[in-house]
Design brief:
alpha+beta; 2 domains; four-stranded mixed sheet; binds zinc ion
């Protein structure tokens, strides 16, 4: 009798262990199933270790990459392949920030209930927010090295994310004909640059909120000023200016004065709060961070830091995000890269500050940029912008042009940086013009 009782307990124990084991397995499957599917040895998803399922398209359904049964294809058109390289990525896995790598799990189409067989075993179709026509226009805009981004600031959809140099992924990187200069890096997200005068947007935001008599003040400029024994040079002798005029003239003397009054702590706080320092997450892709160092009061380095020089660094996407926030009344709809990603909003600025910045960025265009070249403004479109010509220390300058256009036409924010190209107005603004015109259907 005792023996039977012991056996019954033993059987019960085994049964309990089985139930417990099954529960643990189901929990682990629920939590880690997606990762198990993504093991390179899984032949239903990978072929020789390369993702072998799924399709990536642009926002209009143009196929950008497709894999199945060991056959890998990119866009039909070579211009599209080159233009979309960094957004799409490559099957070799060289471009870490590309969709093929970042969204591999989604492309495999794994779900807890159906495994990877949810869509006839061929993975999933993912639509990126980019517009391949705008990408091609950006790629053809004679951008040797740099980044061009455009986003819809109402929806957060990134319509253009072009990084140069690029290469044709169907052929692979060719050291004979392609530039080797960080060719695998998506400069839009993962390169921080000296911002130059586009950083004056940050200094101006801080001045609007911290200097009470800003609108009544007049800022003198005699072409240069000595601060802490250091010569702060300006592009011209601008004379007495209002704050609008000083911003439109991009006057270094005026912004040196503002920076000294605000101090490094306040500027550092604004650079941080406006999203220029910490790395961001854009549609699931991690970005590089920026930099703003604290300099002592009265030093020339502090003056230069408020002018966007010194050791300041920002990424193109962080500048784009700031412009999108100003355009939308202070709250940014976070940039996203997939049509299926949800909208997320973050307040960067108060509505009043955003409105003032907006007004002054439009004054820049009307007062200083319009007429400088026919390739800046677009007929019938109200533009808000800031140029930057950022000295990089080797005698050359990065050309920047950042801003947005009116929501009545299309709510588009943009950023262009052309490395070592020279003046922002001459060499970055026309590239923004070309891409915006394409997106506006011109
Ligand atoms: Zn000046």
């Amino acid at each position: 009798m005792k023996k039977i009782k012991n056996r019954a307990y033993f059987a019960l124990l085994i049964a309990l262990a089985l139930v417990a084991g099954t529960i643990v397995y189901i929990i682990r499957l629920w939590n880690d199933g997606g990762d198990w599917v993504m093991l390179r040895a899984n032949r239903s998803v990978f072929s020789n270790g390369v993702l072998d399922v799924g399709e990536v398209t642009d926002r209009n359904g143009v196929i950008l990459a497709r894999a199945g049964d060991g056959v890998y294809a990119y866009a039909e058109d070579e211009a599209v392949r080159r233009a979309c390289l960094h957004a799409v990525g490559d099957y070799e896995g060289n471009i870490g920030a590309g969709a093929l790598n970042v969204y591999a799990k989604r492309l495999a189409g794994y779900s807890f209930w159906n495994g990877t067989n949810s869509i006839d075993g061929k993975g999933k179709k993912l639509a990126l927010t980019i517009d391949s026509r705008a990408q091609v226009m950006a790629c053809n805009s004679a951008l040797d090295r740099g980044a061009i981004m455009v986003m819809n600031y109402e929806t957060g959809e990134v319509l253009c994310m072009m990084s140069a140099p690029s290469f044709d992924p169907a052929v692979g990187y060719d050291s004979e004909t392609d530039s080797a200069d960080g060719v695998y890096i998506n400069r839009c997200l993962n390169t921080a640059y000296v911002p130059g005068s586009v950083f004056k947007i940050v200094t101006l935001a801080a001045a609007i909120e911290n200097i009470e008599d800003l609108d009544e003040r007049r800022f003198p400029c005699a072409g240069s000023v000595i601060v802490g024994g250091e010569l702060i040079t300006c592009t011209d002798s601008h004379g007495e200016q209002t704050i609008e005029e000083a911003f439109a003239n991009s006057c270094n003397c005026a912004f040196s004065e503002l920076t000294q009054q605000l101090g490094g702590e306040i500027l550092n706080k604004y650079a941080k709060d406006l999203g220029l320092i910490e790395p961001l997450e854009v549609g699931g892709v991690g970005t590089a961070g920026g930099r703003y160092d604290l300099w002592s009061e009265g030093s020339g380095s502090l003056s230069w830091s408020g002018i966007g020089q010194s050791t300041d660094m920002v990424t193109p996407v962080a500048m784009l995000r700031l412009c999108a926030a100003i355009a939308a009344g202070g709250t940014v709809t976070e940039p996203r890269l997939l049509m299926s990603q949800a909208e997320k909003k973050t307040q960067l600025l108060s509505e009043e500050t955003a409105a003032k910045l907006r007004e002054m960025m439009n004054y820049n265009v009307v007062y200083a940029y319009e007429g400088a070249s026919p390739l800046i403004t677009i007929d019938g479109v109200t533009m808000y912008a800031k140029t930057g010509t950022a000295e990089v220390g080797d005698g050359t300058s990065h050309a920047w042009f950042v801003g947005f256009i009116d929501e009545e036409t299309q709510p588009l924010a943009f950023v262009v940086i052309s490395e070592n190209a020279g003046s922002g107005l001459a060499f970055a603004a026309p590239k923004a013009h070309a891409v915006l015109t394409t997106l506006l259907g011109g």
